[in-house]
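PT: before anyone asks, these are the final sequences, not the draft ones from last week. 265 residues across everything. Please model them as a single complex and drop the result in this thread when it's through.
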Amino acid sequence: MSKDKKMGYVMAFHRRRLMETEDYYEQLLRCVGDLPENPTQEEISNRRLLVQPLAYHVLVLIWASSKYSRDDGTQADDVTAYSVAQAVSRRREDHNKTVNYVGRVIDAAEAFDLVVREKSADDLPLRYFLRGTANLNALMTNFALRFLDGSSE
Amino acid sequence: MSEQITDRYSLDRILGTSSSSTRNDDRGNMENDEFEGETAYSIIDPTKVRELFDRIINRDVGDLSGGSAALEAHAASQPDSSVSEPMPPANASRVLFVYNMLLSPLRRSPCP
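LR: through. Structure below.
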């Protein structure tokens, strides 16, 4: 492959990645709605938190475990904020920070009905399982299908 | 010749990202911003995220791991031309995208 051609592909690839990011941002804003006229700090923070790339990592894991991503429509593994954070934390020392971060992303997602917490049947240990909602499924599928269909080009 | 971005200030002006004034406006939330913007990037491991995703979906999504190989294959399938700006490799980048997002759950119809 010639150098020009290769660089063209590299450019095209990154342009594509930028378009994906842009499109995810648009889809997310469609889900969470515009800011009200006099937004509270919490409303601003929630939106700001959810548009971050790492928040996508948390949301996509919750969506993957939801019933919407299953052929048979059953809930996959029960995941909690703690289990997700523990699994994706880079270092053992970062567990608490990661649990904190994941918890905040879930709080923000819950505010926009993307995720709900479901209390476990057993009181001990008391756990809250994360359930992706239809809104989260719409966000993830619409975002992906726009690119798979080529309709965003 | 295009102007080169040489400093943080120029980049902030172009991207409209945080400046000192924006920072001051958000002073109440500064601690959180710092946590989200800097610390958070170092506490989550994307590889572990992908591995957990694989474990959760627990199904074969095909061999889509060859990102650069797919790009090469696409390039090889293109007719050789002297055009200096090649067409965007839509299929190849889709393969990469699908690999990142993982394809299989998308067969389900989107929710209303």
